[in-house]
Amino acid sequence: MARLERLRVFPVKGLAGIDVQAADVLDGGTLDGDREFALFDPEGDVVNGKRTQRVHELATDYDPETGTLVVETPAGESGEFVLPRERQRAAAWFGDFFGLDLTLERDARRGFVDRREMGPSVVSTATLETIAGWFEDLSVDGARRRLRANIEVSGVPAFWEDRFVGDDAPAVEIGDVRLEGVTPCGRCVVPGRDPDTGAVTPDFRARFVERRRETFPEWADADAFDHFFTAMLIAEVPEADRGRRLRVGDPVTVLDA
């Protein structure tokens, strides 16, 4: 049976995610606690993995109950900050690490997701398993950490999430929350790097595109995909379903178009 296997939010944009057992859908359509904080330079540009590989050097953990962020560098230097109360002190610590003048901003209504008019990202466990099999020494958890999805669904085939975009695509219901597909997620440079070291996997994009083309599912609408360097669905929660809660273990049902 298809079920919500895993929920993951990323408290600070660009840094590591945390698994949660439940997450409310915010009024803005995203998940509570996802990309709630983000580091910005004076020009308003965000600091994330697309900008610098150095984000991969940082080991972080976050306690959603207390708002405590713990961060450590490879050299053993560490910081601990209670957010949002200590945003200024945290920004100074990260600024010293990156060599930039930074501020740590907060958006509790929608978060600093890349596509701010859209909602959570969705992937199947089988997709992660398949992608991991394309690369030597890439584990399923490694693929999970590279793709950085919010919602992981088990009990469905690989690339199951591709069916929710394109003409006459169905919607999906998780528990009592309806999600509608908006776009396949075109990937950036981040999935091609080791999430712990930032080391680049040789020929990652070329191999990914080749295997994605070879295994593209027959149920997907190819016209909805601009290219084959895609994995994951970006979904939208209708306004009527916002404020509801997603829970690990919720049943997943495909709805008629």
TrEMBL record:
InterPro entries membership: MoCF_Sase_C, MOCOS_middle, Pyrv_Knase-like_insert_dom_sf
Sequence intervals crossing the membrane: none
PROSITE patterns in UniProt: MOSC
Domain of life: Archaea
Pfam families reported for this sequence: MOSC (PF03473), MOSC_N (PF03476)
Domain MOSC: 86-255
Name the UniProt record assigns to this protein: MOSC domain-containing protein
Organism: Halobellus litoreus
Lineage: Archaea, Methanobacteriati, Methanobacteriota, Stenosarchaea group, Halobacteria
